[in-house]
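User: Histidinol dehydrogenase, Eubacterium oxidoreducens:
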Amino acid sequence: MRILKLTKDTTNDILNSLLKRSPNNYGSYESSVNEIVQNVKENGDKAILEYTEKFDGVAMKANDLLVTQSEIEEAYKKVDSKLIDVIRKAMVNIKSYHEKQRQYSWFDSQDNGIILGQKVTPLGVVGVYVPGGKAVYPSSVLMNVLPAKVAGVDKIVMTTPPGKDGKVNPSTLVAAHEAGVDEIYKTGGAQAIAALAFGTATIPKTDKIVGPGNIFVALAKKAVFGYVSIDSIAGPSEILVLADETANARFVAADLLSQAEHDELASAILITTSERLANEVSAEVEKFANELSRKEIINKSLDNYGYILVAQTLEQAIDTANEIASEHLEIVMDNPFEIMTKIKNAGAIFLGPYSSEPLGDYFAGPNHVLPTNGTAKFFSPLSVDDFIKKSSIISYSKEALEPIYKDIVQFAECEQLTAHANSIKVRFEDNE
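Assistant: Predicted structure for Histidinol dehydrogenase:
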């Protein structure tokens, strides 16, 4: 990995480089995606089946789209029972964590007849997109579905592309069934997002779409936002490690590569105050990269978006971490909890040498659907909050409204909204 002195210029160069990976910069694909979305909106199942044959190489009929109970049972036979046990253990942790995020309706009543409050209601139908193709992510199934279940969503619909045999990956099906998905449909890409947004004769319309995907999926989610809600438009994965001279170079190198292997656009950055650690980590990265199965992807990722930055001071390192606002931030320092209090922008923060990023991906409980491309400055991880909506409650008695009604009338008349003013005045005509 390249080693650079951390300066204002290097920080700006890196930020500009990382931002180029954002889905917002892939406008050349938007027309193709919009065409797919419009076709599905107008032609429903017909368009879905045509795209499934074109992109996935599978010819199906509309009644083949829904995964059957027998297909789920077949999947259980193909998945290692030990993996099923791990999925169930992970579910316990994920549920437990997200149950602490629950929000409840509240009401505040006063003696003069005023009742104010907030009504919390789960979303009705949620669509979960799960990628297929090159990689299989049963962990993402759990992370997207379980918060919705905890929130109390009525119906969860999942779409995922079929393999060449017309079937869904067995571990994906098992994870979906364990998590409580109600319906699973065999379609992927932008066409699946369009189906979830507008509905077809076979696939139900949803209120919100969540889940990761490729650039076509990301742009499709962007295109349908407003017709439905979405979680985010996610970019490539990223990790930033803050480390000092106490860090284990081998651990740090392994953690950087855990994200670099995702894809060629993934970024892996170490910021350290120790030149010795920088050199040791670089050497360990080279050793690991030659041994790991996805070394070609890793090497391209590191060539494009891998950096080791040597900071002059701890404050400079922290400031740069906040500026980059990484999806995953590991703090491997002598006093990680103290450093954590100074971090303002990060999707998930991992503290200490044994809190490696994959712990959060699979097992610890916090959600691994996180803001990317610097959006941790204003976005949060996927949570129960993403699957509820809130309604304000307002109730005034005549006795409560009477002392203030003229104030409201004055406000409305200031804005030249006479019908607003009249709506209040009419209730106290006898007073005039």
